[in-house]
Design a protein that fits this description.
Chains A, B, C, D: Pathway: Amino-acid biosynthesis; L-phenylalanine biosynthesis; phenylpyruvate from prephenate: step 1/1. Four copies of one chain form a homotetramer. Chain A is of the alpha/beta class and about 300 residues long. Helices cover about 30% and strands about 30% of the residues of chain A.
Chain lengths: ~300, ~300, ~300, ~300
């Protein structure tokens, strides 16, 4: 039976992301506690893939996931998933807002609902919980009168009543998740693809970052994410987490990666995969596959034989 | 009396960072729950400054702090502080490791000590706590046998015993904190300064990021942090959180900022301040203040009068 | 009386260019033999200005003029002039095409009329002349039956008859001339200006030329001429002759020149002057004078006082 | 019999350059009058190759040769030749310096010896000649007492005496010549090669020249010559004459040319050939052939099959 890991317990936003994966329907699901543990299940073969939050997450920061990917061996992103992040206030049946004096919640979720709480439950006491799900699940057996949980908690704990929905201070937050595995088969090109890389710079001089970015710009490759992370071995050395528009099989992307590989001491390819938002890349004529093919044909004719490349 | 806000409660790493601020010695200290709340106390004037974690923090992610700074009005970073982040396992006097069946801990701290826990307390049950400090403070009055807390917790809760120190999986983590206020007086140049900016790009074409970075590179300005953040108003628009080496009164930095201002629809200056690590910028001759002054003198002579600049 | 030098003798295209200069009307005119001699008359004060061909000339190549400007002290270009270059075949009155067996012509002019000669006078013998003008002037006293000369030769030598006009192989050639002097007063901005520079590069690495050009590109300054010239002191060192769109009093041009001055070991300013073709520069908003002024105001406010610049 | 064209007559510096070509020893040599005529003999097949001056020449400017190459079909540079350019003053036997009242000389050569003439023969009258060779050859049959000619004129006209050598104002001038043919076989790589191109830019915006040069800089390709030439079809459009270090079979050069081909509406390849000065290119590791090969191997492994390139 196929097995997938995710940041648990059941009912988390990460599981919602996993629900978007067709192969994970009816598959075995392993809830884990950290990004590292999620990747470990994949490295060990226990799970074929793991869903992890990679950006804007309340369940683990982008940095820890990025650092984990940078150090885990052979990880590949297979697909990308967006989940709208919001919270509900749930209670045992019969409880009203006026009854609520204590609220169980994961500390981060509690902080993200601070405005709603200040307005509607200014005197409520916060009881910290290990996860958004356990807060709700344990409602009956704890001193908490209410819990801040995920919208789909009622699928997991059917006995709950929802007192309020959309109580997060920011109503439009989305978290980006990625499904990672050790499968190195490339997903097919769709025209709306993304490629993730981790690139180290040779040193910290002003020009080396520019040298790196010119590899993209001279081939018309847009970046949708760039983030510096200290490498940690000594001061002033950085690796860059980069998401770019396009698939490694797109000529312009392949050319940029060849350039990167030459100027960087280390390039990790994390995968090419369809964009969750389906937005197609807009590519100027001179960066189209045809433009690359034409140039190669032209050069080949000049050197009068298949070039030694 | 002077007042400073920090992410509380007393005993957190953030308070350790605040201890590094001379003006905060003996001052009034307001513990707050979130980065937004910290900035609010400054905006309202309740506190003259707030200490917030800005990078690598277990007490709140870099992204939320960066986004908060990008939207709070008129914030200025006054100083930067590094705190070594580590954890201790603390107990009530007399408790031994063999006695420990339950461990109170903030969920994030618990995750960061996962390896040590798996090795030394594989059967212990995690009891989530609202903070690293409250986990320890409540030891006597809860069902927890031990707590994961900060090294300096024994200063706050004197009755505790330390069973183990340095139990975090990564022993060398540092968190970077910044002290923010609304004071727009510029700290003096020290030669080892940092300048923080938030810059929006006009659009997402491949060249606009490069245009931005050329403003730095053509003036020999090194970046120590660059991070893209979606602006959020519509897809494909980004702001960049940037730390650069140097002070806005350094000629090369001022010139780069003038260039940035011209090519970017919005540049937020978050402050120039001494680097916590004291590392002095290495500046090539052609980017020295003298080089800029000489060039201006040369140009002024050509235009035969004080140029209209 | 005002005095101007030009590549003579009277009747040359260079004198036609000088005719375009209002101050030269009725002034004393000194015909000289070479570009160096022309500049010498200016350096010595004998002439207040000299007209020299700077591009596409049949009367002296662009390179010699550029090299001369690069080494003459304190030369400034005051204005630019375009002259349509063409040739006529002239004879003593009564001579017909059938009579012409010998043709006097400056060797370069003869070469430029090669096609017309091959078609109409295939058997004619070339008698070299020192200039296009002397060829015609000496017609009566030499063995030449006809002369290749400038269209306005009949103003100088009234006794001549024109057998054919427009006999040059290329009918649309224009030569660009510049009037140079030691007057360092800057001509006023017109909105359709040009600035001429000679810039040395620090060495011949691939990046240094790019560094130089980025000084222009990051300020939106277009180049209308760029030409590498070996400096001559040792292999691999180059100076660049550059014409750019705009006046040194334009903010974007001044900023680019400040940048150039910092990255180049030697920048020679040869002048800002109105373009002969009157074509106005198209400047993107972000490179307008206002954009520069706004940026400076913004920076000045940040540093809370008139910046030390 | 093999046939080569050169700018004649016999005895010119161009013939000296042709002497450097092994295949031209004992071959048929056609002296021609202009660069265009030289190329015509190659296009028509009359000559297999033509020697033309391409830079710093007294016998025809760089611009005309460059423009000719840009418009002649299918021209390829096969080799490059340097000739030290200097002049001698020659006379009929028995003539002394004191006797010389008239000097025959090509006007350009006369100008280049202006200082020597002013010092040693201040009163001499210049008699223009069609070439440096004919000036000397016709000494006996003209009114000239002396001639300015090439050092090797005495091989051609044995009856002459040399009164002075090295009389040019600049004693170290070299002229660069190239041998052009329609043979498209590439000369072998030597490690000290040069590649000549003519590249058109899409328009005159500030960035397009930079885009072009980044194609070279991102691959570590040095330029030894860059020269803008107006295309002539309308204002503001330029072509660039470029000499770069390296052979089209060098990976970095091939990559730069592929990039150029994509961003430029027209790239003319004029040839890869050994440098006359034998100076080997210094190539950073990251631009070595190995670096390119390694990068391709790395990419190929990622895409799990021979990439479609």
């Amino acid at each position: 039976m196929r097995t997938f890991a995710y940041l648990g317990p059941s009912g988390t936003f990460t599981e919602t992301a996993l629900d978007q994966v067709p192969e994970a329907q009816g598959a075995n699901r392993i809830p884990v506690a950290t990004v590292h543990e999620a990747l470990d299940t994949v490295v060990s073969g226990e799970a074929e893939a793991a869903m992890i939050a990679i950006e804007n997450s309340i369940e683990g920061g982008v940095t820890s996931a990025q650092d984990a990917l940078a150090t885990a061996p052979g990880m590949r992103i297979r697909s990308e998933h967006l989940v709208s992040v919001n919270f509900s206030l749930v209670v045992s049946p019969g409880t009203t807002l006026a009854d609520v004096e204590t609220v169980a919640a994961h500390p981060v979720a509690y902080a993200q609902c601070a405005k709603w709480m200040a307005e509607h439950l200014p005197k409520a006491v916060h009881l910290p919980a290990a996860s958004n799900v356990s807060a709700a699940r344990d409602l009956g057996s704890s001193v908490a009168h209410a819990a801040i949980s995920t919208p789909r908690i009622t699928e997991v704990v059917e006995s709950l009543e929802v007192l309020a929905t959309g109580i997060a201070d920011s109503s439009e937050a989305q978290t980006r998740f990625v499904l990672v595995s050790r499968d190195t088969t490339l997903p097919a090109q769709t025209g709306a693809d993304k490629t993730s890389l981790i690139v180290e710079l040779p040193n910290d001089r002003a020009g080396s970052l520019l040298d790196m970015l010119e590899q993209f710009a001279t081939r018309g490759v847009n970046l949708s994410l760039i983030q510096s992370r200290p490498i940690g071995d000594r001061l002033g050395r950085y690796r860059f987490v980069i998401d770019l528009e396009g698939h490694i099989r797109d000529e312009r992307v392949a050319a940029a990666m060849l350039g990167l590989k030459r100027v960087s001491p280390r390039v990790m390819f994390l995968g090419s995969y369809p964009r969750a938002d389906g937005q197609r890349a807009v590519v100027a004529d001179r960066f189209s596959d045809e433009s690359f093919t034409d140039a190669r044909d032209w050069l080949r004719e000049i050197v009068s034989e298949a070039p030694a490349r």
